[in-house]
């Protein structure tokens, strides 16, 4: 007999617990005394060692198994729950099935057409151009012929990356993309990575350091009104140049914040939104790189630590509770740290002579939010660290990472 969930308070359903943004979302919501049920695809993932969830269900969170799991769970809930998809593929699946799922769940997502426009790399690029936003020149690669055309017409350096990171991509590499310096190299890398994903893009590389990358997290309510926003920037990322943030800090940039909000506001957006941009020292301008839609991101925890209760605001908005009072960024210098990956990045820059031990130590100072570490919920961090040790002694994994 399947378990029933009878708490009076509506549950938050975190879809994709086995991701950084999933564990962070679960902890944030549980910290507001919200009961959490999580769905994960990998029972062995270190994030599934958490103790903040009332229950963890296992299903194919990146395929039709997700919708089947949600349909199975729905009738066992006493009240409609609030859905928090934590991966792009989960957002897309839930968006397509929202009519069926809305019987049991509050779904705070933009319209289906808006999701498609902003989630697709090609459609986002076209939308940005049509609405006067600065974006780097981009080519979409569906075939070898597309790659050859791009190799002739793109300015170098550039970056080649997937329109959507597939499971195969993550199996083959930890990089989000590859920096390319010439046409021959572009075609060579295309030949290597094309089997890993359905569609690739080639995008002009904006020169600058990791610290020139900015992000804006925001939440628009069900009526499309901006409720909260939070600006941050990277300090370091791993892998370098084309990886994910491993150390970031909140920052103030009112002009960039206004443009970031306009990207969503101009299309009638609703729900959680994230947009990344990069400063180009040659032009003195900011270029938008990509958007993430309808889900928490790795920067959700820094917003929470900075006093902006964005995920809780969505829960309150969905369930009809009064909004929290902490919705305005106060710029207190909060940082966000992924300890293990920042250690790797620091060693990389130290070997290049670009970072001293003292500079690294100083960069950690101040109030912090953590990617995985938590005094009250330590097991995900400890298991992640143990997995890293196993990777170090695995020849197959070392060979995979050497391709990055």
Task: Describe the overall structure.
Helices cover 37% and strands 22% of the residues. With 404 residues, the chain is of the alpha/beta class. It folds into three domains: 12-107, Rossmann fold; 137-204, Dna Ligase, domain 1 (2-Layer Sandwich), CATH 3.30.1490.20; 210-373, D-amino Acid Aminotransferase, Chain A, domain 1, CATH 3.30.470.20. Strands 14-13-10-11-12-15-16 form a seven-stranded mixed β-sheet. It has a five-stranded parallel β-sheet with strand order 3-2-1-4-5. A four-stranded antiparallel β-sheet has the order 6-9-7-8, with helices on both faces.
What is the topological layout?
Blueprint: E1 12-15, H1 20-31, E2 36-40, E3 55-58, H2 64-73, E4 81-85, H3 88-96, H4 98-101, E5 105-106, H5 112-119, H6 121-130, E6 138-141, H7 144-153, E7 158-162, H8 167-172, E8 178-180, H9 183-193, E9 200-204, E10 213-220, E11 226-238, E12 244-250, H10 254-265, E13 271-280, E14 285-293, H11 300-305, H12 310-319, E15 335-337, H13 339-351, H14 357-363, E16 368-370, H15 379-392, H16 395-402
Parallel strand pairs: 1-2, 1-4, 2-3, 4-5, 15-16
Antiparallel strand pairs: 6-9, 7-8, 7-9, 10-11, 10-13, 11-12, 12-15, 13-14
């Amino acid at each position: 007999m399947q378990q029933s969930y009878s708490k009076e308070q509506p549950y938050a359903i975190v879809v994709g617990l086995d991701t950084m943004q999933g564990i962070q979302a679960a902890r944030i919501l549980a910290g507001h005394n919200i009961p959490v049920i999580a769905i994960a695809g990998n029972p062995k993932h270190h994030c599934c060692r958490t103790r903040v969830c009332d229950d963890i269900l296992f299903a194919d969170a990146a395929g039709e198994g997700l919708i089947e799991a949600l349909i199975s769970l729905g009738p066992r809930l006493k009240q409609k729950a609030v859905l928090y998809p934590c991966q792009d593929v989960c957002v897309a699946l839930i968006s397509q099935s929202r009519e069926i799922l809305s019987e049991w769940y509050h779904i705070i997502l933009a319209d289906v057409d808006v999701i498609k426009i902003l989630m697709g790399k090609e459609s986002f690029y076209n939308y940005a151009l049509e609405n006067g936003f600065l974006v780097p020149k981009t080519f979409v690669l569906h075939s070898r012929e597309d790659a050859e055309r791009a190799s002739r017409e793109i300015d170098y350096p550039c970056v080649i990356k997937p329109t959507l990171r597939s499971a195969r991509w993550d199996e083959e590499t930890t990089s989000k993309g590859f920096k390319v310096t010439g046409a021959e190299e572009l075609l060579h890398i295309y030949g290597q990575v094309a089997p890993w994903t359905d569609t690739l893009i080639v995008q002009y590389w904006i020169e600058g350091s990791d610290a020139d990358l900015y992000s804006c997290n925001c939440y628009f309510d069900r009526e499309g009104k901006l409720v909260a926003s939070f600006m941050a920037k990277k300090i370091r990322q791993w892998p370098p140049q084309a990886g994910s943030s491993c150390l970031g800090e909140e920052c103030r940039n009112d002009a960039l914040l206004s443009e970031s909000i306009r990207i969503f506001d101009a299309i009638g957006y609703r729900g959680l939104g994230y947009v990344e941009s990069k400063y180009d020292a040659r032009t003195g301008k900011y270029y938008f790189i990509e958007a993430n839609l309808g889900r928490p991101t790795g920067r959700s925890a820094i917003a929470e630590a900075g006093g902006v209760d964005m995920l809780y605001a969505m829960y309150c908005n969905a369930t009809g509770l009064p909004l929290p009072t902490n919705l305005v960024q106060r710029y207190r210098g909060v940082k966000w740290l992924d300890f293990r990956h920042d250690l790797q990045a620091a060693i990389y820059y130290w070997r290049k002579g670009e970072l001293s031990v003292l500079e690294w130590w100083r960069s950690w100072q101040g109030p912090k939010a953590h990617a995985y570490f938590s005094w009250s919920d330590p097991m995900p961090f400890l298991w992640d660290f143990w997995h890293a040790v196993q990777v170090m002694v695995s020849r197959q994994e070392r060979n995979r990472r050497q391709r990055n």
